[in-house]
Every structure is written in structure tokens, then in C-alpha cells.
Amino acid sequence: MTENNPYPSVPYQQPGQHPQPYQAGPHPPPYGYQPMYVQAPPTSGYATASLVMGILGILGGWCAFGIPCFLAVILGHVALSETKNGRKGGHGMAIAGLILGYIVAIPALLIAIFAFGGATLDSTP
Q1: Residue 122, in any domain of the structure
Q2: What is the dihedral of CA 58, 63, 69, 74, to 10 degrees?
Q3: Does residue 97 sit in helix, strand or coil?
Q4: What is the distance between the alpha carbons of residues 11 and 29, in angstroms, rounded to a whole number?
Q5: How far does the chain reach from its first CA to its final CA, in angstroms?
Q6: Considering the domain boundaries, does residue 39 fall inside one?
Q7: Residue 95: CA atoms inside 13 Å, Cβ hemisphere, count?
Q8: Which listed residue, 46, 84, 96, 121, has the most CB atoms within 10 A of its CB?
Q9: How many domains is the chain built from?
Q10: Chain centroid offset of residue 62 CA
Q11: What global pTM score does this model have?
Q12: Who contacts 82 (Cβ-Cβ below 8 Å, separation ≥6)?
């Protein structure tokens, strides 16, 4: 193309040479075609928080009295109910947060029951 000619130039052809056949552009996709780049639903904030609290609980839950683990369990159950219908993503993160939370929360709860619960049952007035 030149500045004066707005139309694309035709490639030079030798005399006696047949013109190039017309090649059509890309065809539209077939009916019902789903592209591979479908946008995923937004991730649930509760699922992310549950996973973060579960990791914090595993790493330092023993020095924080298991509070991050209990938060991971609560937030994980909220996230599971939020991601159940598929409008929000993060179902796997919610399950991972629940598992990490329960790994420390259940033994902490059992230790608390046996350590403090037994002392109150044995004390007779």
C-alpha cells in the first residue's frame, strides 16, 4: 500500500501466469462451540481465608491455642456452602482449608477435654 492508494496492491504476476486462487478467511465457529478461554467464576474469599488460616494453624497453631485452625474450619464450611452451586470458585481451597484445620483442631479439642474436663469431673465437693 502506498500513502496515495488506500487499497492493498495486487502482487505482480508474470504474463501468462494464472492468478492466485482466492482464499477465504477463517470460518465462524460451529454452532454450540465453546472457546477454551471461558472465564472462570470468581474465587470465594472465604475459601482463600480458610486455606490461609489452615496453613497458619499447621505452622503455628500450637502457639496460638488452635484459634487459626478453628477459624479455618468455620470459614471452610462457609466457603463450601458458597461454592456448592458453582457461582463461586475455590471449592478445592475450601476442602484443603478444612482438612488443615481439622488436623490440628481435633487433637487440640481432645487434649482440652481430657486435660480440663477430667479435672472438673474428679473434683467432688
Answers
A1: no
A2: -160
A3: helix
A4: 30
A5: 103
A6: no
A7: 6
A8: 46
A9: 1
A10: 28
A11: 0.62
A12: 44, 46, 47, 88
- pLDDT for res 4: 67
- What is the distance between the alpha carbons of residues 65 and 57, in angstroms, rounded to a whole number? 9
Q: What pLDDT is attached to residue 61?
A: 74
Beta bridge partners of 89: 43
Low-confidence ranges of the chain (pLDDT < 70): 1-25, 29-30, 33-35, 38, 118-125
Q: Are 83 and 35 in contact (CB under 8 A)?
A: no
Residue 47 one-letter amino acid: A
Residue 7 φ/ψ, nearest 5 degrees: -95, 145
Residue 1 domain flag: no
For the chain, the residue count is: 125
Instruction: Give the whole-angstrom CA distance, residue 19 versus residue 22.
Output: 9
Distance CA 73, CA 94 (A): 9
The domain of 110 spans 45-117
d(CA 32, CA 54): 41
Helix (H, G, I), strand (E, B) or coil at 53: helix
**Is 7 inside any structural domain?**
no
